[in-house]
Write a structure and sequence with these properties.
With 265 residues, the protein is an all-alpha fold. A two-stranded antiparallel sheet has the order 1-2. The longest helix has 62 residues. The radius of gyration is 38 Å and the shape is rod-shaped. The N terminus and C terminus are likely disordered.
């Protein structure tokens, strides 16, 4: 049924006097008519928790709009509807980008990457040597107090050096990891240049690229008529003020002539 609606339009079973305005039906997607419904299945519908648009997406309805005598006025009305939807999906994407960036920062902070085998062997040996020194100290009699303290001091210094090596090597390992970033267009997280190039081939990146381009194209255009109306309103108001000012001057002039005639009498 949906396919037939898309091909033939809504109310295809009903005999209508004028079939050229089927595109105005509420069941027809107005965003699709002007070239961008972000919830179309070919764009974001069914992705990132966006449901697929349930309204009719029909090329036939597009042709009807283009041929309609009020096409320009109707397109402006439908563009306002489309921009509201585009505003929403762009805001949702921007929020997703912010969440992904926070997640990456937290992952880097908590991440403990594997260290080289040689480093692991070295720090493991240092721990065994420290434990051996402590054991030697414990086996000495209290009469050898100075020697015991010396062994314990050496063991503690060895452990401290071990911690410094671990900290430095962990920092180096983190810095050597592929850098994670988030695409500012589609919000996809990737690693390194190869990951960046690969994600740009994803359908969701293409979809958000198109959606953002349409958003940037349509939104400023919608403000132009409003600006024109504002200017027209300002001119009208200026004209009214000018008329009021002229009327006030005429009344003052008549009042002065009246007072002057009264004095002559």
């Amino acid at each position: 049924r949906a396919m037939l609606d898309a091909l033939m339009g809504p109310g295809r079973d009903v005999i209508e006097k004028d079939n050229s305005e089927k595109f105005k039906d509420d069941t027809v997607c107005k965003g699709f008519l002007i070239g961008c419904c972000p919830y179309d299945s070919s764009l974001l519908g069914g992705k990132r928790k966006f449901a697929v648009c349930e309204k009719i997406h029909s090329e036939l309805m597009k042709e009807q709009l283009e041929k309609h005598p009020d096409s320009g006025k109707l397109r402006l009305e439908y563009e306002r509807i489309a921009v509201a939807n585009l505003d929403f999906v762009v805001r949702e994407c921007d929020a997703h980008i912010a969440v992904e960036q926070s997640r990456i920062k937290e992952d880097v902070r908590r991440k403990k990457p594997p260290l080289p085998v040689t480093v692991n062997d070295k720090v493991a040996q240092m721990k065994r040597d420290s434990s051996a020194l402590i054991q030697q100290a414990e086996e000495l009699d209290d009469t050898n107090l100075r020697e015991k303290e010396g062994l314990i001091t050496r063991a503690n210094e060895m452990l401290k050096e071990r911690e410094e090596i671990l900290e430095a090597e962990t920092k180096k390992a983190i810095e050597s990891l592929p850098e994670q970033a988030v695409c500012q267009v589609c919000g996809t997280a990737y690693e390194g240049e190869a990951g960046n190039a690969a994600h740009k081939k994803f359908r969701i990146h293409d979809a958000y690229t198109f959606v953002r381009e349409m958003h940037e194209k349509l939104k400023p255009r919608l403000s132009e008529p409003e600006k024109g109306e504002d200017e027209k309103g300002e001119k009208g108001e200026k004209g009214k003020r000018k008329e009021r000012s002229s009327g006030d001057k005429d009344r003052d002039s008549r009042r002065k002539r009246s007072v002057s005639r009264g004095r002559r009498r």
